[in-house]
Amino acid sequence: MSLEAETKSFVSKFEYSDEDVNKAVKEFLRQMGEGLEKDGTSLSQIPTYVTAVPNGTEKGLYMAVDLGGTNFRVCSIQLNGDTTFNLTYTKVAIPKDLMVAKTAKELFAFLAKQVELFLVTHHGDHFERHVRRRLTVSSPDGFKDENVFRLGFTFSFPVQQVGINKGTLIRWTKGFDIPDAVGKDVCALLQTEIDKLHLPVKVAALVNDTVGTLMARSYTSPGKTGAVLGAIFGTGTNGAYVEKLSNLKKPLTGEYDNSTGDMVINTEWGSFDNQLNVLPNTSWDIELDKTSVNPGIQMYEKRVSGMFLGEILRLAILDLLKNPKVAFFKDENSSSNDWKSTTHIAPNSSIYEQWGIDTAIMSVAAADNTPELSILRQELESTLSVYSPAHDDAQAFKAIAGAVARRAARLAAVAIAAIVLQTGKLIDPESKDEPIDIGVDGSLVEHYPYFRDMITETLRVIDGVGEEGAKRIRIGVAKDGSGVGAALIALVAAGMEKNTSTADYFRELRSSAPVTLTSVMEDDAVDE
Ligand code: ADP
Ligand code: MG
């Protein structure tokens, strides 16, 4: 069989038809409803106790940290009170061994250390003064509380939130596995390690990255209405949206402000359709799941997000390599290669290792429209040790990678459409001509060429959305949304300490906020 014919057959296995998409949207809506009614469903629909969005007049210096899945970010944000802010951040890759550490302490001590490094580097004066003060006062509570940085902790794993800075870990995702942390309050775990280092920092708010993205997008997007959805397409995928309190049927245990009639819900949509009623399931999806640390769960995430797309592609590529009748990444002799060389893969190529293909190469493949695919061919050589790949090898790689990503984007559209339909905005006469604003964050959606366009193209064929609806849905990248959003929620939390309601703090925020990046320092961060 020719490589071309075989590639076509592989590509066709990743097709997800318009009909499939429509069926999945209906199922997504059904599973959303189920999650609003009771606990223990596949879409967790976790209440966040966030009931309103900010208004741009807030002032002060806040900190935020973000444990995403691949990187750990630390930032400080000066809110200027006139809808502008200055952001300083650092980013470091999370060491792989800490993701599966024996105890939670190992991971959280590392995180606290990064906070200390950040303070020393970027807020040296403040740090010095307060450490000195703290050491000279006998009681740890004896120094003034207002000198302490309020920190918003973006923790992007499923958490049962029981208060603005308190929440217990439900389960790990995205390759993390530290059983000791499950069931514990992650804010307390971080605060304990911060206190051991005597840092002037209080973990004031626990924030999911989706909620942070929603807040940040609401803060910065033009127009008078806030965003309806914050969505992540990074290592993992998830979304948080604004739901009517009246639709939330399961009991709420914590305190909240009900004056807005709304509450932000963290869907935990990575677990959509774990039962596989509507999700596609190729032999490669099955294999990926079987060898993962959490078989049977996060089934939607395993078909959509950055951590997994490269691995799906790798498993498909391995199958193609196994077929002795197909000349892929190998040729008989140099005459069959347009570079007049002989293609071969190094035996120690990461193609042969689990997680050996980073999703980032799929973006390179998609972006390379040069006639000879020379950029991709160079990338295959440098990252996967495939020497002298021929033009048709690169074409096959590009086609299969494109099919995996396209299926992911179509699945992303399923979640987005279902949530837009759930908000009722498309049929509400009051919001007839208004755009429906969605904030997105994560390397996949930010860097994969045309990812957002593929989503929009899919939205057009969805019943109840259609051409007209798709036109109104505005998807904007909220860059560093989780950092800015976490700082904004830390600010709400500071207000709550003084007994001010959330809504007073965050009312009618609709103006745009130019971002000033004062300094960016990247330490060994994983490429984005
Ligand atoms: P986090 O999830 O930790 O917040 P990111 O949003 O940066 O971090 O997402 C990291 C994920 O995105 C990784 O799985 C990585 O493989 C993937 N990724 C990184 N760069 C790219 C890229 N250029 N194109 C597509 N995916 C990418
Ligand atoms: Mg992230």
From TrEMBL:
In short, the EC number is 2.7.1.-
- Which Gene Ontology biological process is one annotated for this entry? glycolytic process
> What would you give as a GO molecular function for this chain, any one?
fructokinase activity
Ordered alphabetically, the record's keywords are: ATP-binding, Glycolysis, Kinase, Nucleotide-binding, Transferase
- In this chain the Hexokinase C-terminal domain maps to 229-492
Q: Which family does it belong to?
A: Belongs to the hexokinase family.
Output the PANTHER family linked to this UniProt entry: GLUCOKINASE-1-RELATED (PTHR19443:SF30), HEXOKINASE (PTHR19443)
Stated name of the protein = Phosphotransferase
Protein's organism: Lasiosphaeria miniovina
